Amino acid sequence: MAGPPADSGSADPAPAGTGAPVSILARFVAAVRASVREREVALVGIAAVMGMLAGLAASAMSQTTQWMHEALFQLAPGDRLSAAPALASTLMVLVPVAGGLAMGLIALALKRWRRRNFVDPIEANALHGGRMSLTDSIIVSLQTMVSNGFGASLGLEAGYSQIGGGIAARLGRAFHLRRNDLRILVGAGAAAGIGAAFDAPLMGAFYGFEIIIGSYSIPAAAPVLASTVSAVMVARLLGVHVDPLNIPLDVVVQPLDILPIALLGLLAAGVAILIMRLVTGVEMLFGKSGIPAPLRPAVAGLGVGALALYSPQVLSDGHGALHLQVDSPVALSVAIIFGLKILASALSIGSGFRGGLFFASLFLGALMGKLYGGALAMLWPSLQLDPAVTAVAGMGALAVGIIGGPLTMTFLVLEMTRDLALSGYVLAAAVVTSLAVRETFGYSFSTWRFHLRGESIRSAQDVGWMRELTVARMMRTDMATFPEHGTIGALRTAFPLGARRMVVLVDGAGAYAGLVRVVEAHAAEHDPAEAVSRLATHRDDMLLPAMNVQEAALAFDAAKAEDLAVVNDRATRRLMGLLGEAHVLRRYAEELDKARQGLGAEV
């Protein structure tokens, strides 16, 4: 027997086993949905809960892949794969091959059962108002675990960010969040996943601001910080932590050292661009090789395994190797590992392994900075700039060049080294790198891959609203039409002065033939017997329904028109509607103002 309906007002408790718990939950969810729109604290509460879930997920991913490393590569418990002195056996070169085969099988399954492109948090926030699939996010996270767990030269960061963003998007849909609130929550989710994995709440928060949300804003601060802190606390409770980065205790940095460190930032920009183009080049070579797509990761895995025979530091993300390299002497092996790691990472991501270059870029940056410091010591001995300092600065700078986020990487270095003075020099190098990459290349690694797909986005800033505001949504369909073969007198009769401002001419098949201003048709100098077509303007200036608001505004400017007809396509020119420039500019201004308020300009 069912209990009383939720709105019955009955005070009697529902019998055991009825739908009362469901009703109570529904009421609670409805109350939270309403409060989220009215009170910011509700969004912060959702973000904190979501952060806990993201922290659990990131911890599980980290610990599972560590267990895979120990089992597959015969490591002692707690040992890092990239810190191993050598592979336990030459047969270990086949482990990445096995991972590649697994990735190929996964790709075949996805091609058959889930063909759409997966949306990551950056794309979700830039183009889809924060909407992304939790199922897709779980799949991507599992793929990164397979790739990293079998030794591919990539990190788990893409999985951490993806699962955090996916959880956030799912919660956001459950609570019917508005577009901007959902974007903030997705940024907070990605920040929580990354922050928990690195045990770095400040870095995680600024990852959310700079890379996922695309801006710093007051409304976003509390949710992002709440999610990141809660995720880090959960990860710490579960035993996930990152060892501090040890640097020599006697390192002294002088004010003038900022100059060679800034030069290191320029070098990092060049290396970052080279790596991004190399990854694209490897992907193109695999595409032209004739090797079936499902087998490409296995072929690349064999190459990565062969490189690991020289040093396991090329495997996985490089967590353990980073700690080995920062405070060790500069040697020829550093340059060799630097080159091999770049090649291994390019092979891994270019062949179809899933993962990120986040920590790989930190490791490569440390190697690059260490080599730079060693070269300075040889060429300019009086400078006395310790290679450990340039290694740390290079670590942050190269990561900024590839991933983006100057403050993100600076806070990561601060939380890894716990040296505030050194972090200022890292920030200087990061700013130089960021500026140089944006001026000469214009993309981070993720947005560069969007560019290769034909997208024009360069950050996670919300441009989706602009694409969604199309001519089809803005046009009016109650426009006045008139046959192009009619006379001016007939048009005057049909449309007296003041009845309409603009009339659309159509031919016998209903195709667009031009625009006529009613006031112009009523001008005394025109003979009523003349064909109205002689007054037609903008015969070849048309809008298409799929054009977005920005494209429509540019079309009005190019045509020097106040009104334009909307046609289905330029070949058949079938009339669909009419759109005025004033309406387009007003809608554009309204949506732009909403976006500006969402960035925190008005709260």
Automatic annotation (TrEMBL):
CDD domains noted in UniProt: Voltage_gated_ClC
Q: Which UniProt keywords apply?
A: Chloride, Chloride channel, Ion channel, Ion transport, Membrane, Transmembrane, Transmembrane helix, Transport
Name of a matching Pfam family: Voltage_CLC
Q: Which PANTHER family does the record match to this protein? A: CHLORIDE CHANNEL PROTEIN CLC-E (PTHR43427)
- Spell out the molecular function terms from Gene Ontology: chloride channel activity
Membrane topology qualifier: Multi-pass membrane protein
Q: Tell whether Transmembrane helix is among the UniProt keywords.
A: yes
* Residues passing through the membrane, by range: 41-61, 81-110, 258-279, 291-310, 330-350, 357-380, 392-413, 420-437
The name on file for this protein is Chloride channel core
Q: Can you name a GO cellular component term?
A: chloride channel complex
Tell me the compartments it is located in. Membrane
